[in-house]
Amino acid sequence: MNVGLWISRRLRLGASGAGSPAAVVIAVTGVGLAVMVMEFTLAIVTGFKDGIRAKLSGFEAQVSVLAPIGGQNYGNTDFLTYTPALDSVVRSAVPADADIRMAVRQPGMLKTDDNFQGVIFLGQSAKSDFGFERANIVDGHWPDFACDTCDNEIVLSRSLAGRFNLGVGDKVFSTFVIDGNVKMRRHRVAGLYVSNFGEYDNSVVYASLRGLQKVAGVDSLSAGSLDIRGIPFDEIENVSRRLREALVDASARGTFAGYYPVDDILRTGALYFNWLELLDTNVAVIFILMLAVAGFTLVSSLFILILERVRTIGVLRALGGSRPFIRQIFIDLGLRLVGMGLLVGDIVGIGLLLVQKYTQILPLDPAMYYLDAVPVEIVPWQFVALNVGVVAVSWLILMIPATVAAHTDPSKAIESD
Fold it and tell me: First vs last Cα of the chain: how many Å apart?
């Protein structure tokens, strides 16, 4: 039987004549608030990162194979030909369930009688998984770009449509400059989308891959790039490296006449990812401040409880209790306060986070944050690690007042009563 633990449990917290309710309330509240703030920080920062990454991955390919450099460029230096040999090499280096799309990003200009703007027309394989694109549609529909009659249909953002005073079903002229020649098409607006990702909303217009291939004067096997999606974020760098090595080896064996460059979202979206990395610094600062708050309240509250139990300490020391024995009693007492604080913080904190996750009652300005509500992503292992970390740091902090209690002179402690 652990006598020290038994004694610490017998020391009631906040009961009449046995402790200060105010000290207990302050300690539990301090720990609970600190845990809540740290949980809010973890869930919101994780949710924000996931939200931005999802939007960026919706517009940019996670990994791309670009047009070949050197050798035979198939008549157009801006396009590659998706041959069976290229398909075989690419699939050998990427996950089996990866989404490989032929894509054409063609600069052009939208024009009406009183307005014009440069945009990027994006065409992708008609059988691709357009879940991200469909989820952003707010008016109209996502065209079936596989049908022959949809080559002149486009989907543009609601912000772009507002500038041109366009609605679903309206027609607009599109202008392209191909090899020095100006080509015009008359497109019909099939749908409007909102992603709240301003830079892309103001520039990306979805169009038919076949229609853009006709504008560029290339065949149905030609694409500006092969876009590979559906890769876990932490695997992007490895997949990109494997694919690059596979293409280099194939070129060295003579499978290809030129070298196919490989790009990935970690480079094309570096500005956003560097910005997101700065959030980790904010998280560290908040954690340090919250641990300092929790530590201060714990130390001050335990000192109050120690002062109220000076005679008990004296009696235990007089009965032969060692200093480590006394120290452990008050560490256990302090950890009881920590446990109560963790329980309160977890229940209230996770409860509020779940409310926000499923109701999104706290909005954000999409123009500034790219999201229309405070994002929440609860990752269980992060919260478990947070609780374990709080207990570990609290144990170290509680050593200070517990050590002071252990060095109390027994004769003076008994006389002080």
Answer: 30
φ/ψ (deg, to 5) at 172: -145, 145
Report how far residue 340's alpha carbon sits from residue 344's, in angstroms, rounded to the nearest whole number: 6
Question: Taken in order 140, 143, 144, 147, is the CA torsion positive or negative?
Answer: positive
Place of tokens 């300092």: 292
3-state secondary structure of 320: coil
pLDDT greater at residue 374 or residue 308: 374
Amino acid present at 13: L
Q: What is the mean pLDDT of the chain?
A: 83
pLDDT in tens, 370-382: 888 889 999 999 9
Signed CA dihedral, 209, 212, 214, 219: sign only = negative
157 vs 143: CA distance, rounded Å: 14
Q: What is the pTM of this model?
A: 0.78
DSSP 367-404: HHHS-SB------HHHHHHHHHHHHHHHHHHHHHHHHH
Q: How far is CA 47 from the centre of its chain?
A: 5
Candidates 149, 147, 142; CA nearest to 189 is 142
Q: Considering just the CA atoms, what is the radius of gyration of the chain in Å?
A: 32
Q: Which amino acid makes up residue 288?
A: I
Candidates 306, 390, 301; CA nearest to 26 is: 301
Please state, for a pLDDT cut of 70, what percent of the chain lies above it.
82
Strands 137-140 and 181-193: antiparallel
Question: Rounded distance, CA 165 to CA 292, Å?
Answer: 55
Q: Assign 113 a pLDDT band (cuts: 50, 70, 90).
A: confident
Strands (E) across 287-332 are located at: none
β-bridge pairing 181-193 and 153-157: parallel
Helix (H, G, I), strand (E, B) or coil at 155: strand
Q: Is residue 375 within 8 Å of 334, Cβ to Cβ?
A: no
Q: Rounded to whole angstroms, how far apart are CA atoms 269 and 61?
A: 10
Least confident span in 12-21, 116-125, 205-214, 260-269: 12-21
- Could you give the angle at the alpha carbon of 319 between the alpha carbons of 14 and 317, nearest 5°? 60
Q: Is the pLDDT of residue 17 over 70?
A: no
pLDDT in tens, 214-255: 999 899 899 999 999 989 888 999 999 999 999 999 988 888
Tell me the CB-side half-sphere exposure of residue 38, using CA atoms within 13 A. Answer: 28
